[in-house]
């Protein structure tokens, strides 16, 4: 269903416009935005040169803009000598003061003038065309050369608007013009309307998502370079495509007949990568501790795992299990070892992990080894990569995942206040910061925002994740069974809101992240708190909302690309 502006329709509309309004709303899909009753004027040296009204403007991020003049009447005539139009309604004939095709063309010229005055509009200027609709009657034959049947929507076409309107928009298409989300937003502003009224956040996210997964020139270059390097360390900022490159090189290695291990520190990330590589033979995907436990216990009794959050628990995973893996690897047959190893989020690995992991490599000194890392996300006290300086590539610096606003916010967290996001980055609105007085207030605020995102902004539930620095049992919000009537789940499950700790979601992403309980584990000036904020914020590809203690919220609201939201 198309987005209609305004909704409901303006009062006083004639029946033909009402019929067209309802036809557009019911037949066009949600990527179309239709505006009704646009008054305009053109100024010259402070004087009104021309004024008019557009019955409808229909916009689409890929097809551009179509201006439509609507005329009601059962029958129409055009006198080529006087160039006068007339229409019949029932038994009454009436003159049409202006040629409807000329009216539509004048609106096109006005709109183009308005858009050209916007700085940078050459980067998103849409194709703009015109049409005339006769919802009550049929249009047979060309009234004059500027009024072809191809630009007409008559009574017969009212039942096929879903194909007719896009076909006319394609007729007006101009090569090389890319309207997109940015153009849609500027169009809203040019028409004097508020952006949030015109198009839902969900629609903007859908448009941005279309362009997120194509390999960039930088990524293609690195991928080709890795094919020629037996070992390499690839570092890069959040969103630079490291995980995508890790998957690409793993596929390439496996298809060249190499038994390949893909591993990381994070359990969820390993699950995601396993799913992505499920169709590939010759690849083992496992997070490090899962792999270690499986190998250590393969021919032995299960190991007793200490209770969580204890000193013994930390020692088991940091020291005992890696040490036992190293011992098991020393007696492992070469046939069971790996020809190549790919590690994502490699900055998380400690020295004991590397010692054990390299013993699983059939040729650890010089065999294929590809390590992907981001030191800005080193929240587990990992050590430097086990590679020579000559094997480390220059860092990937362009963030292709996060919106322009989130990129700017992340740069400020790193201390780079002069950062300018990539020109192709999607712009989906500021990072929203909300202060809460106590845990109960926070829960209510998050529930209200979740309800708004789903019901008002039309964001799909599966595109949202709720993150906190704490585990579920220590969290005031994640420990609840539901929010806004939606069940919470620590696992991906239909009809539930996915929740996780920042640690548990590291390396993954969602279009929308609700980042809660910020400031309860340290001030923004504390390095660890800043790292938590960076890791959690970078998980949001297109929209980020932060719920923080008053002190933290006051500071964050002063960061660039943020907006302090009222509870």
Write the layout of secondary structure elements.
Layout (H helix, E strand, L loop, with lengths): L2 E3 L9 H13 L5 E12 L2 E14 L3 E7 L4 E5 L4 E6 L2 E5 L3 H17 L11 E7 L17 E3 L6 H11 L8 H11 L4 H4 L2 H9 L7 H10 L4 E5 L6 H14 L4 E5 L2 H10 L6 E5 H9 L14 H20 L9 E4 L7 H8 L10 E5 L30 H10 L17 E5 L3 H17 L8 E5 L13 E2 L2 E4 L7 E5 L8 E9 L8 H11 L2 E9 L1 H7 L5 E3 L3
Parallel strand pairs: 1-2, 4-8, 8-9, 10-14, 11-12, 11-13, 13-14, 15-21, 15-22, 16-19, 16-20, 18-19, 20-21
Antiparallel strand pairs: 2-3, 3-4, 5-6, 6-7, 17-18
Q: If you had to describe this structure to a student in words, what would you say it looks like?
A:
This protein has 16 helices and 22 strands. The relative contact order is 0.09. Helix 10 packs across helix 11 (311-330) and helix 11 packs parallel to helix 12 (351-358). With 567 residues, it is an alpha/beta fold. It has an eight-stranded mixed β-sheet with strand order 17-18-19-16-20-21-15-22.
